[in-house]
């Protein structure tokens, strides 16, 4: 019995393996570009909407399918670059948008891309809750001629780039026949992107360039996407040139990557608008005291967290508002422009003294005579976070706070963080196209939960009606000045009440090699996000040139 | 006959217990598949995704544990293990079919090689006590005492990075599509040399040891002395008389080790990024992927059970004493 089942399985594997059309070819040939991600084993799933598909995990969905516009989260205040849509116009209240769809775009099966396809895609996302990952409150999408009108149940100012920049457009003539769009693995994807799927194996996905692509035809003729089991296997592959484009965390990247080929090996990790913060449990005594939090914030050495904790890979957040530079410069309120966080133990001690705290034998005591101690927690194995916590613990000891770093299992950590059973923990915020997302994640009353109840954000249980109101005003208003004021209020709260301690920014970066291909976005020419899993892949590919 | 029936009953009971445990254990693990997924994407999936992911995985519907248990049994008989969460919506059976052959191929072949080499070396070492062959044991024991991942990493450092004789990771050249072409098979073999070699090196000592000890016992038995006295060739006595009788425990040991092929490969697959089932299981546990965990566990328990049963039968066939009814 065992033998038969083995044979059946072998047969199955051979059959799937033979389905590909076979692509011979040398590994190091200049016309192939190999993208790698450290994501472990994958299965043949090319569903562009599914967060668990191989095409999403490796990022190749964005060279098969395209968004309406190319959004650059590194320059969020700039207008997105027209892509499948030639132009768009938001209504003043941001409850609807009129899009003009580009003419002359063909699907990879030869049929024309029309406004109906676009309307169909948005209606599909609207009607299928499981596909609407950003929970955008769509009302409806209608096509007339080359115009598509999208309407929403509430103002979408803060989601506008998500809507037009992160939705893969799919053909109606294919997807209207799909029985269950959440469960289809789309073995033969038809898209408008510059590449088509040529073969799929559990080790590598090969794509070939299209002859009838509407835009600038990429010089790269063949793309290969490879999934490595872990960061170290991915790093080895990058180091020896086997793979030329990736996004992976590499401690000591200078030694393990750059040094292997200093002329061509590049790493570019600019910040997006998401940050990593130390969530402090505001619902626990004595951390409910803003004076104490302010003092803690003053002694944390972000430079050390950035350099030693995060190996220099996560950009520093210097503004006391928590908004990373240069990406968020335009959002920083005038009074905080050019204000930079500085470690100041003296000032911290003064604040504590004024608030009635005492330092006894090097130990900090609250006004009612209790020693201030805390546990900093994060999951075992998240070595960069744990190293950063160690630095913070050392920093806190300079004002007499006895902080201990505790590593727990991921599940335990989730449970503790969500139910408020912790003193402080390092966690990320989402990356939005405005600072709204990061502030909402940190202090939105809409996410506020009592201790013991599960919170999905605002883990620090920060309670401020002022913050909640400013957040909803920012999202709903149609007046530019009101929006600016709301953002200023949020920054004031960050500085004066320190709901969390902002540390470093979340990068939207890439590791790449200029050996065979040049024209990558970098500091000199930051035209696009460079992560291979972002929608900008097709934009980058149309700009790459042989070295 | 009664012996066989008794054994069959025993195996049925064990299978039921294993399959039932296989249902309950993943459900008793702490954690939540949706939360694991959100952690994996660190800020790239918005938290608004939580709701849609529960809907996507079908976790929003409440069904009683008993009802799930019944469905689970139904699924086992139809071979349908549901859809994996980690690789949603790929069916578990497809994932197993994609990764199991690589594991069976690599570890199966290495286990056979290790068994054959070890048993042969054990025969010689046991027969020629006091000769050079005695040095085999301490040397191979030394290697089996080194943690496996260490041997693997050294093999990569020496043969893949310093000398670049063999590839460091993967099951085949990523430029190739699996097929029965010479190029692909060649690539398959070069990619399996290092992982295969390290498995053999770290497991061969056990076979040598048990075979040698049995040889030592057997070679002082009367029938061996008689064979010598008959004037038979040394080689005939060694293989035809002594080794043939001494090999029994090794054969049943081999049958058991076949059962562990599926489960014992995690380290190899981690070190060499080999596309097998061990790493899939690791991922599934990490992601709280109940359907996938269940599918893989089931394959493992079943193969261990079947191997046990085979070992039982072979032993009963080879050695009549074990079938004697009490």
TrEMBL record, chain A:
The keyword Signal applies. Residues 1-19 form the signal peptide. Keywords: Signal. GO terms for molecular function: peptide transmembrane transporter activity. Gene3D superfamilies: Dipeptide-binding Protein, Domain 1, Dipeptide-binding Protein, Domain 3, Periplasmic binding protein-like II. GO terms for biological process: peptide transport. It holds the Pfam family SBP_bac_5. It is found in: Cell membrane. Residues 79-440 form the Solute-binding protein family domain. It comes from the Bacteria. InterPro entries: SBP_5, SBP_5_CS, SBP_5_dom. It is a lipid-anchor. PROSITE patterns: PROKAR_LIPOPROTEIN, SBP_BACTERIAL_5. GO terms for cellular component: plasma membrane. This is Extracellular solute-binding protein family 5.
TrEMBL record, chain B:
It is a multi-pass membrane protein. This is Binding-protein-dependent transport systems inner membrane component. CDD domains: TM_PBP2 (cd06261). GO terms for biological process: transmembrane transport. The chain crosses the membrane at residues 9-29, 102-127, 139-164, 184-209, 254-275, 295-318. Keywords: Membrane, Transmembrane, Transmembrane helix, Transport. The keyword Transmembrane helix applies. PROSITE patterns: ABC_TM1. Residues 100-311 form the ABC transmembrane type-1 domain. Belongs to the binding-protein-dependent transport system permease family. SUPFAM superfamilies: MetI-like. GO terms for cellular component: plasma membrane. It is found in: Cell membrane; Membrane. It comes from Stackebrandtia nassauensis (strain DSM 44728 / CIP 108903 / NRRL B-16338 / NBRC 102104 / LLR-40K-21).
């Amino acid at each position: 019995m065992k033998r038969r089942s083995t044979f059946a399985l072998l047969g199955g594997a051979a059959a799937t393996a033979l389905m590909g059309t076979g692509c011979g070819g040398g590994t190091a040939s200049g016309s192939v570009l190999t993208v790698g991600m450290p994501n472990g084993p994958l299965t043949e799933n090319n569903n562009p909407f599914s967060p668990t598909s191989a095409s999403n995990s490796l990022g190749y969905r964005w060279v098969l399918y395209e968004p309406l516009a190319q959004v650059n989260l590194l320059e969020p205040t700039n207008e997105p670059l027209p892509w499948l849509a030639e132009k768009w116009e938001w209504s003043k209240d941001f409850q609807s948008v009129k899009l003009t769809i580009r003419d002359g775009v063909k699907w990879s099966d030869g049929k024309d891309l029309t406004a109906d396809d676009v309307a169909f895609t948005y209606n599909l996302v609207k009607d299928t809750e499981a596909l609407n990952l950003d929970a955008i409150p769509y009302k409806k999408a209608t096509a007339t001629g080359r115009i598509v009108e999208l309407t929403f149940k509430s103002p979408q100012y803060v989601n506008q780039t998500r809507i037009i920049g992160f939705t893969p457009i799919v053909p109606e003539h294919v997807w209207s026949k799909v029985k269950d769009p959440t469960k289809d693995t789309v073995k033969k994807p038809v898209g408008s992107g510059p590449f088509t799927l040529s073969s799929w194996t559990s080790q590598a996905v090969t794509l070939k360039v299209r002859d009838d692509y509407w835009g600038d035809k990429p010089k790269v003729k063949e793309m290969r996407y490879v999934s490595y089991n872990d960061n170290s296997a991915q790093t080895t592959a990058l180091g020896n040139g086997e793979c030329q484009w990736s996004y992976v965390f590499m401690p000591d990247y200078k030694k393990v990557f750059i040094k292997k080929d200093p002329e061509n090996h590049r790493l570019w990790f600019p910040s997006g608008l998401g940050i990593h913060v130390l969530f402090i449990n505001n619902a626990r005594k004595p951390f409910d005291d803003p004076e104490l939090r302010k003092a803690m914030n003053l002694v944390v050495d972000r430079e050390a967290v950035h350099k030693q904790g995060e190996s220099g890979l996560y950009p520093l957040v210097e503004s006391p508002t928590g908004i990373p530079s240069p990406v968020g410069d335009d959002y920083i309120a005038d009074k905080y422009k050019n204000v930079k966080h500085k470690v100041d133990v003296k000032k911290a001690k003064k604040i504590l003294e004024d608030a009635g705290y005492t330092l006894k034998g090097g130990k900090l005591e609250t006004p009612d005579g209790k020693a201030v101690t805390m546990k900093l927690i994060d999951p075992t194995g998240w070595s960069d976070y744990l190293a950063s916590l160690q630095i913070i613990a050392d920093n806190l000891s300079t004002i007499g706070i006895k902080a201990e770093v505790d590593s727990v299992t991921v599940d335990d950590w989730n449970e503790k963080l969500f139910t408020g059973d912790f003193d402080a923990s390092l966690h990320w915020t989402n990356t939005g196209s405005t600072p709204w997302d990061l502030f909402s994640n940190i202090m939105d009353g809409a996410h506020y939960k009592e201790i013991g109840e599960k919170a999905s954000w605002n883990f620090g249980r920060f309670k401020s009606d002022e913050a909640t109101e400013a957040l909803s005003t920012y999202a709903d208003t149609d007046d530019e000045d009101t929006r600016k004021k709301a953002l200023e209020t949020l920054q004031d709260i960050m500085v004066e009440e320190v709901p969390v301690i902002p540390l470093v920014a979340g990068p939207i970066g890439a590791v790449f090699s200029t050996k065979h291909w040049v024209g990558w976005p970098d500091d000199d020419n930051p035209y696009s996000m460079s992560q291979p899993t972002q929608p900008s892949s097709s934009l980058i590919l149309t700009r790459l040139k042989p070295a | 006959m009664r012996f066989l029936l008794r054994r069959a009953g025993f195996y049925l009971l064990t299978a039921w217990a294993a399959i039932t445990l296989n249902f309950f254990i993943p459900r008793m693990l702490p954690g939540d598949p949706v939360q694991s997924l959100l952690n994996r994407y660190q800020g790239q999936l918005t938290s608004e995704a939580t709701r849609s992911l529960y809907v996507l995985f079908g976790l929003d519907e409440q069904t009683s544990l008993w009802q799930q248990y019944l469905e689970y049994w139904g699924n086992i008989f139809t071979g349908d293990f549901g859809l994996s969460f980690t690789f949603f919506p790929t069916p578990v059976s497809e994932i197993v079919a994609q990764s199991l052959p690589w594991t069976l191929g690599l570890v199966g072949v290495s286990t056979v090689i290790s068994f054959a080499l070890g048993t042969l070396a054990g025969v010689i070492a046991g027969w020629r006590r006091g000769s050079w062959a005695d040095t085999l044991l301490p040397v191979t024991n030394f290697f089996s005492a080194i943690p496996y991942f260490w041997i693997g990493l050294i093999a990569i450092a020496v043969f893949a990075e310093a000398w670049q004789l063999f590839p460091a990771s993967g099951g085949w050249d990523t430029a190739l599509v699996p097929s029965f072409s010479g190029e692909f098979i060649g690539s398959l073999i070069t990619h399996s040399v290092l992982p295969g070699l390290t498995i053999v090196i770290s497991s061969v000592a056990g076979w040598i040891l048990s075979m040698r000890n049995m040889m030592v016992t057997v070679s002082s038995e009367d029938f061996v002395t008689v064979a010598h006295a008959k004037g038979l060739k040394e080689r005939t006595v060694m293989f035809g008389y002594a080794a043939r009788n001494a090999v029994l425990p090794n054969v049943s040991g081999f049958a058991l080790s076949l059962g562990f092929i599926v489960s014992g490969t995690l380290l190899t697959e981690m070190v060499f990024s080999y596309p097998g089932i061990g790493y899939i299981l690791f991922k599934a546990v990490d992601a709280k992927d109940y359907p996938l965990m269940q599918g893989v566990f089931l394959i493992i328990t079943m193969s261990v059970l079947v191997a046990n049963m085979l070992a039982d039968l072979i032993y009963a066939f080879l050695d009549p004493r074990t079938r004697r009814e009490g």
